[in-house]
Amino acid sequence: MYPDRVLSGMRPTGALHLGHYYGVLKNWIQLQHEHECLFMVADWHALTTHYTEPALIEQSVWDMVTDWLAVGIDPNQSTLFIQSRVPEHAELHLLLSMMTPLGWLERMPSYKDQQDSLADRDLSTYGFLGYPLLQAADILIYRANQVPVGEDQVPHIEITREIARRFNHLYGREPGFEEKALMAVRRLGNKKSRLYLELRTRYTEQGDDEALEAARALLADTQNLTVADRERVFGYLEGSGKMILAEPQARLTQASRLLGLDGQKMSKSYGNTIALRDEPDTITRKVRTMPTDPARVRRSDPGDPGKCPVWSLHEVYSSDDTRRWVHEGCTTAGIGCLDCKQPVIDRMQAELVPVRERALALQEDPTAVRNVLADGCERARKLAQDTMRDVRDAMGLNYT
Ligand code: TRP
Ligand code: SF4
């Protein structure tokens, strides 16, 4: 019932690298042409794990947004904002916490997994347990229906749906719902409202599904109702009350084929990254010193690209011709590993040099990034405030 709206977020915990670019940002760049998009700097989420390093987070916020802009996220098409600048997220998080069973949070796979994998941090905190709930608030406050995330985040979208459902169930019946719904029905006009009521009776008293379909179709082509009234007439029809929070869908982003320098997932914690702003010489050095198929000890030993992390870079960067050349040359020891790496270095440089230049130019002019964010925060905040008005209303917190 609401237009398509995409929301996604990224935690500011260090320099962005090629893994972010291939795994997340390319997808965002594409989506911004197709839908209304909101892209959020999840600084509170960063604090749940990095609460001892606030300076890192502060610096990373600017660096991250600079990199977003440098790779082509367009602030004229998307809304870029900082979570903590829209304090309504915290209010919704608090209100949702009242009705969220502890077990739902304790059972989230990320809760245990992260505590294990980030064993050097103390994550037995209240804030970290609430991580998925804060994420639910991020999504629900914009009534976003599409949330592009990786596989690991899917349980967070599922819990968001469950929380929305629970909220609507508990608070979806506004006071005087029936009278308000009937007023809205009257606004359909004489003929339509009579038909609507007939169909509703057939559905509610005789369970006639065709009548339900017909009533839905009738409502689908009425234009003269406000959003709130539309929801009331739909809710009154099906006996479901008013949908205050919308259930989102996860939009799965394919796992990036681009692996780190050692063949594992590219990640800062593994020290195997190429940062978007690495200098050209650094890129060359990092690729030249990458490990290769361990069987190729000497230049004359043949190798197997399937056992070599450089191959995964060719899969992303090279043409079929180049890949054939690699395969042939590697398995026959016709080329050396440095020969093999050169085309990757060239393509990576060609991709990253302009990104780095744009990022450095933006760094020279910090007010540009600040203005983009000030603008985005203001836009986001208006949307969030609209939802919070309905939420407070539903929970009896408006006191007017
Ligand atoms: N938890 C997400 C991650 O680690 C970041 C995030 C925070 C997010 N809030 C969000 C993603 C809302 C999507 C929607 O990647
Ligand atoms: Fe890897 Fe290329 Fe060396 Fe083969 S030739 S081992 S694919 S770097």
Could you give me the name of the CATH homologous superfamily of the largest domain? HUPs
Backbone shape: elongated
- The biggest beta sheet, please? 3 strands, parallel
Based on the coordinates given, report the CATH architecture of the largest domain. Answer: 3-Layer(aba) Sandwich
Ligand types: tryptophan, iron/sulfur cluster
Q: Say how many strands there are.
A: 5
Roughly how many Å is the radius of gyration?
26 Å
CATH topology of the largest domain: Rossmann fold
Unreliable stretches covering 5 or more consecutive residues:
none
Structural class computed from helices and strand pairing: mainly alpha
Helical stretch count? 18
Q: Give the CATH level 1 class of the largest domain.
A: Alpha Beta
Integer tally of domains = 3
The helix-strand sequence is: EHEHHEHHHHHEHHHHHEHHHHH
Q: Average the pLDDT over all residues and give the rounded result.
A: 93
Spatial sequence of strands, sheet with the most strands: 1-2-3
